[in-house]
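Researcher: We plan to redesign the surface later, but first we want a full-length starting point. Tokens attached.
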């Protein structure tokens, strides 16, 4: 037992060390393109900190509280030490590189001042005004020469000549009693440092997500091996449980599989529309904004085509065939995206990605159905969602940073390679076929629909009352459609909006990161609060959800700048954190949908949402014809009115039902 614990400690140390090294390497990649004077000292400190961190981890895993008194792994302690080490390394590196960068920026300003002063001293009075204009830069916005009384006698801005100017820290002697004064843009240094600070904070947050998933993965693998060794040891003295009572490895590792897949495949999610807009467009009759939405729509359309066929393959061949096929298609489409010479090829490549993504996505969703009971199935769904959002958070944020450093095409190649590498994780997992429903029970259920036990009347199970159909259609149009279309705010609107205002691709990744973090951490608490406040009314919570979507879109339309779009992403994440669940549950509880059965209903819901998501980019493209702010405000108002209309129709239905009662 002691030997086994030592092996586990060594395994955890190796995995944690690898995580620390990966984060350190990414920090190096993030800054490798900068001048050596920026990075030499910070890189040396990063190396020293990494070595110290590895030594600390070695001490912890050798003698620390890795196990409790019962011999079970202490996941909280392991996560705490790894996150603490990561935070310390990155914060120390953060302050060092920002400090060095700030010093160098100030030095560069004074170096430009010395150069400008030297050039100005060589100029004649006749040419001085013109030469001062040529010496301006991003950090130096104006240069003027003052006489002994402080009057401006020469300036890069002719309107200032003859005015009185007060000396400051950037005023220097200029010969013959004159002085030369430089007007420095103090926001220039702040803007340069702000972008670097935000990049480092983004890496810090995503590295915490990444480390948590790595620790969970290591613990799951260890636990699985322990269970296997216990089973092997008990073969001679105990009866081995039937295979059906043991959770299959795919469901056991569903969180890790979904994390790795979404991390790899979502690296490029922040810049698909912007790249589409920049490619050569031979289709002259299509506007740039519409063309920017075509790749995403093609991807969603092909995802829809995989929804129904995936279940059939799962029932006949098992989960590995559709998932591996999906991985190959996603990697192939992503690689073609990297080498696309024009828009049509890029659209085709995203369609291939969509088909592969649909196979993987529906396989992961159906994996939860492999659980032997309802508790295991619910656990599967919870683990799946945790892995999906953790992977999306890390992938979109880090992919956006890499795109700003190396370009879009390089990130596509990285994404394709990592997607293929995902297959290495699942290749040793056992295959399993999706269990089909018991045909006898199904037949019995169908037969029961034909007989009304109270009145002895024979009813047709295929006939759905018209009123129930209308109820389902109204919910799809007024509630599901706005929520599905609003998803394009993150994937279509924000990339184009930030590009239009001159912001970076990294800002798109940060907005998507905010959205994902709020969904992961605010969702459970908000769901519990709304269930209590709304007295468990799914209809009320759906109305709240739709109104919150309208507000989240109205906020970025309220004014310009970078802060409001981030706030809108956060509000949308807050809405989706509980809205996905309540909308699905209400839809599946509608009488017309219940008539289809749970499996078909889920497939129809997925298909409906994906089709609506497909038209999302075109809806936003049409809206922003009148302007980015005005267009999204208009969408917000329309979505809000649709929610109000749903309330009104619901009240009228209740009144009619009340009047018909005897």
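Model: Full-length starting sequence:
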């Amino acid at each position: 037992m002691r030997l086994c614990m030592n092996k586990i400690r060594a395994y955890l140390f190796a995995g944690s060390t690898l995580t620390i090294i990966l984060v350190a390497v990414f920090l190096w990649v993030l800054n490798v393109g900068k001048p050596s004077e920026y990075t030499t000292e910070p890189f040396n400190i990063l190396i020293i900190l990494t070595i110290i961190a590895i030594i600390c981890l070695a001490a912890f895993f050798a003698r620390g509280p890795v196990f409790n008194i019962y011999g079970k792994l202490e996941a909280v302690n392991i996560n705490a030490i790894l996150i603490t080490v990561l935070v310390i390394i990155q914060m120390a590196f953060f302050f060092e590189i920002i400090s060095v960068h700030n010093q160098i920026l100030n030095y560069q300003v004074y170096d430009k001042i010395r150069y400008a002063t030297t050039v100005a001293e060589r100029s004649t009075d006749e040419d001085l005004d013109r030469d001062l204009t040529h010496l301006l830069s991003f950090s130096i916005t104006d240069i003027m020469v003052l006489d002994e009384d402080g009057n401006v006698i020469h300036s890069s801005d002719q309107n200032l000549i003859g005015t009185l100017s007060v000396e400051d820290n950037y005023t220097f002697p200029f010969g013959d009693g004159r002085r030369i004064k430089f007007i420095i843009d103090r926001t220039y240094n702040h803007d340069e440092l702000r972008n670097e600070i935000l990049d480092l904070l983004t890496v810090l947050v995503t590295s915490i997500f990444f480390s948590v998933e790595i620790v969970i993965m290591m613990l799951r693998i260890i636990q699985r091996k322990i269970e296997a060794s216990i089973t092997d040891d008990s073969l001679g003295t105990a009866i081995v449980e039937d295979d059906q009572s043991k959770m299959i490895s795919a469901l056991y590792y569903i969180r890790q599989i979904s994390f790795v897949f979404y991390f790899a495949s979502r690296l490029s999610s922040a810049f698909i529309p912007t790249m589409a807009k920049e490619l050569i467009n031979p289709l002259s009759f299509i506007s740039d904004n519409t063309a920017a939405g075509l790749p995403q729509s093609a991807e969603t359309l092909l995802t829809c085509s995989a929804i129904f066929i995936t279940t059939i393959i799962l029932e006949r061949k098992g989960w590995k065939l559709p998932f591996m096929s999906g991985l190959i298609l996603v990697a192939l489409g992503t690689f073609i995206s990297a080498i696309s010479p024009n828009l049509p090829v890029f659209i085709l490549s995203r369609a291939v990605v969509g088909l592969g993504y649909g196979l993987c996505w529906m396989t992961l969703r159906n994996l939860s159905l492999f659980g032997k009971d309802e508790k295991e199935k619910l656990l599967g769904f919870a683990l799946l969602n945790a892995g999906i959002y953790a992977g999306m958070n890390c992938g979109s944020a880090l992919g956006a940073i890499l795109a700003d450093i190396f370009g879009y095409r390089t990130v596509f190649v990285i994404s394709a390679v990592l997607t293929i590498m995902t297959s290495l994780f699942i290749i040793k997992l056992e295959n399993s076929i999706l269990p089909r429903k018991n045909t006898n029970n199904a037949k019995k259920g169908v037969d029961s629909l034909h007989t009304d036990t109270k009145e002895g009347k024979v009813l047709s199970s295929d006939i759905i009352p018209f009123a129930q159909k209308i109820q389902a259609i109204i919910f799809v149009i007024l509630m599901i459609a706005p929520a599905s279309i609003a998803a394009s705010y993150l994937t279509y609107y924000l990339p184009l909006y930030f590009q239009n205002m001159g912001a970076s691709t990294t800002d798109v990744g940060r907005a998507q990161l905010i959205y994902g973090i709020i969904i992961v951490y605010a969702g459970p608490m908000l769901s519990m609060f709304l269930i209590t406040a709304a007295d468990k009314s799914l209809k009320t919570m759906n109305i709240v959800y739709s109104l919150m979507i309208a507000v989240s879109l109205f906020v970025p339309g309220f004014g310009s700048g970078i802060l409001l779009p981030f706030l809108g992403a956060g509000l949308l994440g807050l809405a989706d954190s509980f809205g996905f669940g309540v909308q699905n549950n209400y839809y599946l509880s509608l009488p017309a949908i219940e008539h289809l059965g749970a499996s078909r209903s889920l497939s129809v819901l997925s298909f409906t949402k994906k089709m609506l998501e497909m038209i999302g980019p075109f809806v936003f493209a049409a809206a922003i014809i009148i302007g980015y702010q005005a267009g999204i405000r208009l969408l917000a108002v329309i979505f809000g009115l649709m929610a109000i209309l749903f309330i009104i129709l619901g009240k009228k239905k209740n009144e009619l039902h009340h009047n018909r009662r005897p």
